[in-house]
C-alpha cells in the first residue's frame, strides 16, 4: 500500500466518522477537566495541613525555649535571714526586689527594723537579704555575697559584747552557745516565729527545755 492510498483511506474515515471523533475528544477533555478540578483542592488542603503542622511544631519549640530560659537564667536564688517569719533560701524571678524576697519569707516580724533595709534594691543571684531587729545596727542589710552573713548581722551592738540575738540568729549561730544543740535551736526558732519574737532574754524560759538554771547560765551570751 502506497502512502497516497493510506492518506486517502484516513481522509475517508475522517469524513465518515467525524462526529463520533468530536464526541470522543469532548469526553476526554471533560474527564480531564473534572479530574483536575476535583484533585486541586485536595492538594491545597494537604499543603495547608503541612504548613499548619510545621507552624505548630515551630511554636512548640519556641515556647519550650522560652520556658527553659525563664526557669534557668531568668531566676535568682536569695538567702533571706533575720527578723522574718520564715528564714530560708528562695527562688525568685530575675529583676525582683528585696521587698519581694521578704514577702516570700513570710514577711517581717513585729520586731523588724525595715528602716535599715533598701526594699527597692534589685536582687542578685546568691544574695543575702538580712532584716535586722529594732535596736540592731548593720552596715548593709542586703549584701550580695556568695558566702554567709557577716557575724555582726546576728549579734547585738548595744554594748553587751558579742551576744547572739535570739530574734535574728540562724540555727547555726544559736548552736554556738553552750547548752543549745540542734533540737533546742529548732525550738527557739519555732517559738519566735509563733510569737513574733522574744521581748526579753527571760522569755527563753517559755521554750521547752530552758529552765531557770539553763537561762541564768547562758543569758550573758544572749540578747534581743
UniProtKB/TrEMBL annotation:
PANTHER family: ENDONUCLEASE/EXONUCLEASE/PHOSPHATASE FAMILY DOMAIN-CONTAINING PROTEIN 1, ENDONUCLEASE_EXONUCLEASE_PHOSPHATASE FAMILY DOMAIN-CONTAINING PROTEIN 1. This is Competence protein. Pfam families: HHH_3 (PF12836), SLBB (PF10531). One of its GO terms (molecular function) is DNA binding. Gene3D superfamilies: AF1531-like domain. The keyword Glycoprotein does not apply. GO terms for biological process: DNA repair; protein secretion by the type II secretion system. Keywords: Membrane, Transmembrane, Transmembrane helix. The chain crosses the membrane at residues 21-37. Residues 172-191, 202-221 form the Helix-hairpin-helix DNA-binding motif class domain. GO terms for cellular component: type II protein secretion system complex. InterPro entries: Competence_ComEA_HhH, Endo/Exo/Phosphatase_dom_1, Hlx-hairpin-Hlx_DNA-bd_motif, RuvA_2-like, Soluble_ligand-bd. Residues 141-160 have a biased composition (Low complexity). It comes from Limosilactobacillus fermentum. Residues 141-166 are annotated as: Disordered.
Amino acid at each position: 500500500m502506497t502512502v497516497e492510498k493510506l492518506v486517502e483511506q484516513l481522509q475517508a474515515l475522517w469524513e465518515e466518522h467525524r462526529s463520533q471523533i468530536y464526541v470522543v475528544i469532548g469526553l476526554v477533555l471533560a474527564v480531564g477537566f473534572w479530574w483536575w478540578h476535583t484533585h486541586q483542592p485536595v492538594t491545597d488542603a494537604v499543603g495547608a495541613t503541612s504548613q499548619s503542622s510545621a507552624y505548630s511544631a515551630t511554636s512548640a519549640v519556641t515556647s519550650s525555649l522560652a520556658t527553659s530560659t525563664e526557669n534557668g537564667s531568668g531566676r535568682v536564688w536569695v538567702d533571706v535571714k533575720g527578723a522574718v517569719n520564715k528564714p530560708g533560701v528562695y527562688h525568685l524571678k530575675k529583676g525582683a526586689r528585696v521587698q519581694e524576697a521578704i514577702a516570700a519569707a513570710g514577711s517581717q516580724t513585729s520586731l523588724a527594723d525595715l528602716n535599715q533595709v533598701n526594699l527597692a534594691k534589685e536582687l542578685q543571684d546568691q544574695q543575702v537579704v538580712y532584716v535586722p531587729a529594732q535596736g540592731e545596727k548593720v552596715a548593709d542589710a542586703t549584701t550580695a555575697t556568695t558566702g554567709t552573713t557577716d557575724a555582726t548581722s546576728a549579734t547585738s551592738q548595744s554594748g553587751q559584747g558579742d551576744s547572739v540575738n535570739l530574734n535574728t540568729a540562724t540555727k547555726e549561730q544559736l548552736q554556738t552557745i553552750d547548752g543549745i544543740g540542734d533540737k533546742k535551736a529548732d525550738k527557739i526558732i519555732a517559738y519566735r516565729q509563733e510569737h513574733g519574737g522574744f521581748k526579753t532574754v527571760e522569755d527563753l524560759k517559755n521554750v521547752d527545755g530552758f529552765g531557770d538554771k539553763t537561762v541564768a547560765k547562758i543569758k550573758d551570751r544572749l540578747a534581743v
